[in-house]
Amino acid sequence: MSATSLPTPYLRLDLAKAQASIEAMAARARALGVGLRPHAKTHKSVRLGRLQLEAGAVGLTVATVGEAEVFAAGGCADLFIAYPLWVDAPKARRLAAVLERASVAVGVDSTASLDAMAAHGIRPEVVVEVDSGHHRSGVSPEAAGEIGRYAADAGFVVRGVFTFPGHSYTPQTRASAAADEAIALAVAAESLAGQGIAASVRSGGSTPSAQFAVGSGGGGLTELRPGVYLFGDAQQVELGTCAMEDVALTVVATVVSHAGGRVILDAGSKALGADRAPWASGYGRLAEAPDARIVALSEHHATVEWSGGRLPQLGSRVLVVPNHVCNTVNLADVYVIGDGPEAWPVDARGCNS
Amino acid sequence: MSATSLPTPYLRLDLAKAQASIEAMAARARALGVGLRPHAKTHKSVRLGRLQLEAGAVGLTVATVGEAEVFAAGGCADLFIAYPLWVDAPKARRLAAVLERASVAVGVDSTASLDAMAAHGIRPEVVVEVDSGHHRSGVSPEAAGEIGRYAADAGFVVRGVFTFPGHSYTPQTRASAAADEAIALAVAAESLAGQGIAASVRSGGSTPSAQFAVGSGGGGLTELRPGVYLFGDAQQVELGTCAMEDVALTVVATVVSHAGGRVILDAGSKALGADRAPWASGYGRLAEAPDARIVALSEHHATVEWSGGRLPQLGSRVLVVPNHVCNTVNLADVYVIGDGPEAWPVDARGCNS
After folding, report:
1. Are A132 and A168 in contact (CB under 8 A)?
2. Which of A6, A256, A320 best tests the B interface by mutation, with the highest count of B CBs <10 A?
């Protein structure tokens, strides 16, 4: 329970736990012999990004030009926009401005996106995105060479290939997704090599697959891009990626009602986010009540079925572990450090374009 | 398709459509003989709240003290916090400040919450919350009198009773939820009357149930609190509450990839919200492609299965209709009016405590 009287719901960051997770993933990357490039869309915080860089990260990953602007302005000199960016004239101007203060590589999965960048006179280093089984964006690994050749002919430097093994987000597929990722990146790098282009980077990674990632020694990754690991969340707990006691970020909520013999909290989807994977046990978890389940979520209500024991009293505060922390953070303006009053800004909150 | 070159994703508001829906609901309330008190948590906009008041709304509903602060500062003189508020010392001070500039009634569903307000020296008008079948917060209708008596004895003015018929949010239960609502409010008012307290207000309403609401003439509601109706969203379209062409708020997104023969958009859960009801056909809809379905959603990707015809070309813009517009609005800083450049602030964005 939090001792603070800050208005709930708010984000509470246990910095010691986050630091431990930052160091553990850095050690994992060293053991694998790969560069660690954490995805900063999770935390959107310049200060947390700095902690990752100080622990040995080679740079940061971002999802949007808006995030790149914030992190470049915050002094991060090496960014990768791991996204198949579509650049029109205004976005080209913004990206050009970021390129003046930082090294920025950009994801591509179409020749049209390369044409668009070239048409606007902008040629960042590019990384070809391939689909390793998540079936979102990215070309097939065998087609990486074709995109790479087109890019090189159009005057782009091709850094290598990347994938997001998002199909690691089920309890059964963490290891197999990591295997798919390694194979896809190897095939993609070979496809590039067939066009005379050396893939200096084979970039993959997600928090659930990181434990099973294949390093460059095994012909797999040269770079890892996990995001959620520094905080953890209910999804990661239920996937088995972290223990509940390792979760660094919680939402402090107040018990506002005992209607129906349940616990109603003032943290709803506008504080937690509405994510719920098919395999999730609820809309989030309670850090200090492992058997309780959030069975319903409205914008300002979490309905909790308490399992045994007395209900926490009206007006008391509990720590909610959100399902998917990236969306939770994007809903808040600040992290309260421990019980406060120190607070760190969510610098790139809302910078999603 | 939008002609603007604003960076996507962003909120696009068709003001003429919103105004038509504002007027239609005002007419509905007049026909029912009930006061209309729209829920401003949907739009969080002082200007849109003013349009509702100009169309005849008796006041606005809000969910949090933070929203009450914004709307009171914006000149709205009559607010109802339709939430079982827990008031500690800092919140009591904030609420007292709002009470100096506006009439503010507060929801209650426990004697403890009344004790907490009294302990902090604050006694707003209260409205007893009852559960009409949604099973979230609120006491049973039969218990309203007990709470009301406790409140009156503690020096509170009891305005009446309220409920949220949230079980109206399925395609089959819109009418039955409205019937439940009317019965619950009548029983609750009778329970109050048994304690010698006249319920001058019996407040209910949601957008899906509004069409079926029972007015005061039938012994039902005296006040209606729908929220979503002024914008509409994919949930409302699929519930049958509005037609796709009536939807006033969309998220403008760019086609960034054709991976896998599908359409990948740059509007993900950080722009749309992650809501998906069990009966929803996807993670949102496309305004101008009725057969397309958003089959997967990540933070920055919507994966769209296109049904027949050519895919929209890379770099083109489409209008996404989010599933649940309240969460969508809370993710944005501004509404772009039509194709811009005029933009209205989401004044209470993030004011969720």
Report:
1. no
2. A256
Each residue's pLDDT tens digit, B284-340:
999 999 999 999 999 999 999 998 889 999 999 999 999 999 999 999 999 999 999
Hey, CA dihedral for B54, B56, B59, B61, is it positive or negative?
negative
Question: How many contacts does A have with B, using Cβ atoms within 8 A?
Answer: 186
- Put simply, the answer to whether B256 touches A63 (Cβ < 8 Å) is no
Q: Which CATH number fits domain A63-226: 2.60.40.730, 3.90.45.10, 3.40.50.1100, 3.20.20.10?
A: 3.20.20.10
- A129-176, pLDDT tens digit by residue? 999 999 999 999 999 999 999 999 999 999 999 999 999 999 999 999
Q: B23 and B209 in contact (C-beta within 8 Å)?
A: no
pTM: 0.97
Give the span between the Cα atoms of B343 and B337, in whole angstroms: 6
ipTM above 0.85, yes or no: yes
pLDDT band at B1 (very low <50, low <70, confident <90, very high): very low
What are the sequence ranges of the domains in chain B?
Answer: 15-230, 234-345
> Residue B130 carries which DSSP code?
B
Among A5, A41, A112, the residue with its CB nearest the CB of B90 is A5
Bridge partners (DSSP) of residue A334 are A345
CATH number for B234-345 (one of 2.40.37.20, 3.90.550.10, 3.40.50.2300, 1.20.120.1770): it is 2.40.37.20
Residue of chain A minimizing CA distance to B63: A300
